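Lecture notes, unit on binding sites. The following record was shown on slide 14. It pairs a sequence with glycine.
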Amino acid sequence: MKRLWISAVLAAGLALPAQAQDVADSVAPEMASGNSDKKMVTTEKFMVVAANPHASEAGFDVIKAGGNAIDAMVAVQLVLGLVEPQSSGIGGGAFLVYYDAQTGRMTTFDGRETAPASATPELFQNEDGEPLKFFDAVVGGRSVGTPGTVKLLYETHAKLGSMPWADLVAPAIKLATDGFEVSPRLAKVVNGDQKRLSRFETTRNYFFPDGKSLPVGHLLKNPEYAATLKAISEKGADAFYKGDIAKAIVKTVQNAEGNPGKLELADLANYKIKERPVVCAEYRSYEVCGMGPPSSGALTVGQILGQLNDYDLPSMNAGDPNAWRLIGDASRLAFADRGRYMADSDYVPMPTRGLIDPAYLKERGKLLSGDKALPKDKVVPGNPTWEHAMLLADDESIELPSTSHFSIVDANGNIVSMTTTIESGFGSRLMTNGFLLNNELTDFSFRTHRDGVPIANRVEPGKRPRSSMSPTIVKKDNKPVVVIGSPGGSRIIGYVATALIANLDWGMNIQEAVSMPHLINRFGTYDLEEGTAAEKLQPALEAMGYKTNTRALTSGLHGIVIADDGLQGGADPRREGLAVGE
Ligand code: GLY
């Protein structure tokens, strides 16, 4: 106990050498003012925060017309698939964390893609059993999992929505028919991915009309997407999972030149979304709740925060290198557990409860009590308790930053926290019927075993690849107080955890918290966001023993704080998002 108290005093910055304290105090204001002068939005009744103004406005219109958060979710997602096609869409999957104001119940819905029934653990290996090069696996049909987003939208709407389905599909049909102006971000990412996008004719024709990369401001129409949505509007999810659209998806996947995939009509016809219990971890006086397996999101965010419970972060500030040592090493320890234990728990026994057991995290948190970066040999998986233990080897899977997150609070206090993806930017690069197909299967480990011991996140037929998506709702005194999530591959976990620390511990408002420069550590190297105050912490972090790497860290944190006197919204300045409401 005494040791812990001493470390807490050290951690509190009381013993920081004068010079280090100077760094902390001079960097802290810049960290809080963030990357931009984007202002927090405040409203009284409802709010929608999404990655593109068209999508936020579609959600706004639905709620203004009397719809609820689930209704708005449908409109937002279908518009995002049009205006931000690189990040999410009906060819992909999503996780929804939902809070029902009337019952006070929180639940989650899993619309994650599944591996085809004919997929084998060696899906991403060559004839010699060696893993394929990452992008050789991504581009083409092999990486395409059975999409889940349409069923997620349709079935949760049938259960929880209030407006007619067709009315919610209509805004995206109209925008696809009339056209929308290509945004600077879309133009930039199309131009940057020219070689891969040009590999397939349909994709090439859409993103490079007349052979030229789509310019900013170009009025882009997508009549094929409008036709697909019209069918879904009239016939529901079956129009997507059976019939002509399903046939077109399967044909596109199986005939992908150079890298065909295994998806079949039966995979689409048999696809099911799953309602799963919410996973909540304790953090100070809060409960941080989110998506459990097959996502590693809520568990890893919860582990990071849970290990920090005994450290007095609230008395430090965002410029304090010691705060970042604690956060960085808590994250490294959490990622060690993630790599060993986390995968689709329908297929692999997992110590889900043990991983966020407060007693386990308290013990693991004691590893952070020093004043230097943890040596590599100390960053190994822990031993959480579990009912059905299994010997597992450490994972090896790459996740690229893409994806989109939106947060919605409706006029009755219902909440949607949804993270949605087609995996890497533009997914598999295959396009059919006006939408891109995901490459979600490359979120699996390409290797199946290590030294004869199986890897939890290996490919198996029908299994869902492990995700990092972390749609989150935070509760205090059993009432929701923060809604947040982000894109960013496996860095999503760090983006969400640090934005929560900024808001809950350091008193930043939600806009400041999502704008705060990033410092992210997953596997040892500290990633520092280039061109920001985070770079100023580099010497101190290197003196503690970290390797550092300065780079762009393009989160897309979209958050809402539910305060006593209304709602406060923050949209990440690194993307094109917008908070709107009334
Ligand atoms: N493909 C991004 C994720 O699921 O984490």
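Take-home: The longest strand covers residues 93-100.
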